[in-house]
Design goal:
single chain; mainly beta; five-stranded antiparallel β-sheet; four-stranded antiparallel β-sheet; 9 strands; about 0% helix
Length: about 110
């Protein structure tokens, strides 16, 4: 049996307000999030973790107003333990240009 990182969500936000990226059906550990800026300009992103809902503000921020240069990517690899009532959220300052993929470990 091998353990491999597996994508569990992928989204390109189409709004500049904070949105929910992922809510697990069962408790799990989110290993990493990769954010890729596909635009020709810089973008600013924030990542949130609400342990009991989907309120995304400065009280539950994991990554605050971080700039990703044009064509660059950002790896957020602070493993996040998630319960089935919490969620991960994101806010971007430019729509339709940041591809966000979350990974967890899956046994095969």
């Amino acid at each position: 049996m091998a353990i491999t990182p597996t994508p569990i969500f992928q989204i390109v936000p189409d709004t500049v307000i904070a949105i929910e990226l992922y809510r697990p059906a069962n408790p799990e550990r989110l290993e990493s999030i990769v954010l890729v800026n596909t635009s020709v300009g810089s973008v600013v992103v924030s990542i949130y973790h609400d342990i009991d809902g989907k309120l995304f503000d400065d009280t539950n921020i994991l990554l605050h107003d971080t700039t990703i240069s044009a064509g660059a990517r950002l790896l957020f690899d602070d493993r996040v333990l998630m319960n089935d009532s919490g969620s991960i959220g994101v806010k971007v300052d430019t729509i339709d240009v940041v591809t966000i993929t979350g990974y967890s470990w899956v046994d095969f």
